[in-house]
Amino acid sequence: MNRRDFLYRTGAGLAWLVTPALAVGTEQKKRYLLQAGEGFSNLVPDEDVQTAVWQYNRQTPGPVIRIKQGETLQIPFSNKLIQPTSIHWHGLRIENRMDGVPGITQSVIEPGTEFLYEFTPPDAGTFWYHTHNRSWEQMARGLHGVLIVEEKEPIVVDQDLVWVIDDWLIDRDGNIDESSLGALHDWAHGGRVGNLLTVNGKSQPEFPVFRGERIRLRLVNVANARTMNLRFTQVSPQAIAIDGQPIVPAPLENSALTLAPGQRIDLILDMTMSPGERMAMEFYLGEEAMVAASLVCDLYKVVREVPLDTNIQLTKNPLSTTLDMANARTVDLSIEGGAMGRMREAVFNGRKLPIQELVKEKKIWAINGIAGLSDEPLFSVERGETVVIQMDNKNRWPHAMHIHGHHFINIDEGEGFDVVWRDTFLLNPNGKKRFGFVADNPGKWLIHCHMIEHQAGGMVTWFEVV
């Protein structure tokens, strides 16, 4: 589909109701039943068209799981798919054996079998979960959801909304474009991008609000590869958290933001519109803009005439933020490959192969000359060491670099906020950045591009904290 088709396909839609998974348990422990299976979802504007998708608990996206900070979460997970799968808890600093990476932290969960995930997240914030096996296909079919860890002392808001932003590659009949799954062209370029934009599984949903309400809006980009360029109308949002970690509240410059695949941002929006007006979150595709989702102000009810005068600063998480730069372990990480790249050879499965052979294996990206996972870690450090990763993007494509089990900071420069601790960072073409973190979570952890086709094409490595 061309750009016009894309804009048409994302026409008027309906609001999506967040439905929780089944939760039982005590005050300090919750148990959610989660199941992956096939289903149907009305993604396109035509209500009569149902798209065959893969779902958690028969929902697109999967259910929003909410627990309180300090609670233990048990998730008996059952796989009703035709493929093996697993679940990665993106951004959660949990014990390694629960990280959900086949071949690193667990075996795949075979069709018809179950696996018990159990962990106690130390951090409050907005996180998400998604498949980590054949992610380039299973995520494109819909296997993702949001996990929220609520603060022990939450800030005062009238509504706490979650907007899951995704794009789908859909044919003219409203079906997922099967022929494009695994396409080498996408893997070697910017990844698999869609022609249909959804928020909470719907095209241009509308959410009711009242004048004077304060909204906490949690945005999550679950797309395989598309970076979302967004702008808000009518209101001036303030950012209060990025990738689950609190920041000093700050207004968005020009009410706009960029959200790479895997990233999240929490915003505060005060509904200062007049009754009947709407606030739109616009999505930019080149020079063209379209409405992605809207908040529509009720015609009659008014909650308050002036915004709340209450604190919106979130309590800090127990994150290790003191970097011992004098004794830091410095690691070089060089990214090569892709279309129009200069990579001529790389090691794959222990053998050095020329680019022609790598293309046959669909390994067209490499980190430090190695395409895909190797038996040896990129580096190994003792628990508590400070690590500085010097990333050098030696190609013409952006990459959303994600580090499992830890949050890191861009050492060299700010990003418009005082302090930003992330788990996913958008590294520009031919860009260089230094990322620092305290390696305080024992185990084997991945580093990879969250343009998922890039990861599948070889842009993935791992490190060990002992």
General description of the model:
This protein has 466 residues and is mostly beta strands. It contains 5 helices and 34 strands. Strands 1, 2, 3, 4, 6 and 8 form a 6-stranded mixed sheet that branches. A hairpin with a 2-residue loop joins strand 1 (23-26) and strand 2 (29-32). The radius of gyration is 21 Å and the shape is globular. The relative contact order is 0.14. Residues 1-26 have low confidence and may be disordered.
**Main β-sheet, in a few words?**
6 strands, mixed
Distance between the termini: 49 Å
| Oligomeric nature of the chains | single chain
Globular, elongated, flat, extended or rod-shaped: what is the shape? globular
Low-confidence stretches: 1-26
- Number of DSSP E strands: 34
Structural class: mainly beta
How would you state the average pLDDT, rounded?
A: 92
The radius of gyration over CA amounts to 21 Å
How large is the share of residues in beta strands? 35-45%
Work out the helix count.
Answer: 5
What is the helix fraction of residues, given as a range? under 10%
